[in-house]
Request: fold
Amino acid sequence: MPDRQPHRGEATSRRWECRCCDPPVLLAMYDSDGQIQIKIRDRFYRFYGSLGRVHATCPRCGTVHELDLEKTGHDTALAKLPTQS
Ligand SMILES: [Zn+2]
Reply:
């Protein structure tokens, strides 16, 4: 999938991902305006406004990530949960 070039005035989309494997596991997309887009099965959810922090668990390795949208994309790996198998 080719990278989409951002148009002028459009916020740059960034990937929030867990780098436990190659290619990395995509957790969500977010942009420099603090919006976040989360894909759940066949649906896309887009969140606007002051979101603060968002948690996501990597489906592969079970690491809980925290994305701080106030700091635009400060990702912290919090804990590792047991993976379901
Ligand atoms: Zn992972």
